[in-house]
Please model this.
Amino acid sequence: MEKVLELIKVDKRFGQYAALTNITWSLKQGECAAIVGGNGAGKSTLLHILAGLIRPSGGSRIAHIDPLRIGYVPERFPATRFRPTEYLRHVAAIQGLAKSEAARRIDAMMAVFQLPDTSMMRSSKGMLQKVNLMQALLRQPDLLLLDEPLSGLDEASQAEMVGLLNETKRLGTAIVMSVHEPLLISSVADRLTRLSRGRIVHEGPPEIRISREEDEMRLEFANVAAHLLSELEEASGFLRWETKGKTGAVIVRASIADDVMLHILQSGGSILGVQRLHERSGAAGVPAQSARKGALA
Ligand SMILES: Nc1ncnc2c1ncn2[C@@H]1O[C@H](COP(=O)(O)OP(=O)(O)OP(=O)(O)O)[C@@H](O)[C@H]1O
Model:
């Protein structure tokens, strides 16, 4: 399938602060990628760059569809005094949609989204999030970007959003979503990209469950300098060596696993394999292939 959008060696700095570093990443038509990572990892910044809302400080952003229609679903969506249909008509006008086309799209979406057309001031968080998604889908985007789309929603609204996103995907729209919820990852995403401190530290299939802080991870590595092994022993999440040496395996808390891998890769070493040892809900280990040095952008 054809690529929709591509980032090549993208950096983003805010003053001296590097929010994103050396991001090479692309998305194909109809694909859905989940972006995960801790607070401040760079997820929103990455979405803003993909959306074209901010420019990279270095590297390139290449759209492979011209013109590329993008829908953006921000994390915070304010309630207004408008009814959803009124609000959407305004957005459609701003987006330059013809009145008749806008009316047709809005009618169709109101039926699918099953929203009461009453003032948004009286809407629940779930209803507002539906309007948020509808404004992004008005122009039938090639690419839909969502920042934490399930944040603050109750279970029923989460399930509805999952259904709507799957339907959007089925219609051929590529999706990128910054996300915490395993539900959304396992039921919509085809791929998972994990960021840590502005770098991609993992790219792979979505069945990888987000690690719990207390889980133990086994990291197998090669070409790691002796001083780095000593530093690792001092880290608070270090548990034990399985094999210590230039090539070896270490057991650490999941909470520091991303940072350890990043350190190893940045110092010229390689990650040969990653495995979760304490599995509380049947998650699979990460295949060694997906964590090799080549996976780091
Ligand atoms: N406009 C800005 N000016 C200065 N620093 C910024 C700006 N935007 C983001 N940052 C910084 O860049 C880093 C990444 O922020 P970003 O919002 O992308 O992270 P995130 O992964 O989305 O985090 P969270 O899950 O907490 O929303 C943070 O340290 C943040 O403080």
Remarks:
- The CA atoms of residues 148 and 179 lie 5 Å apart.
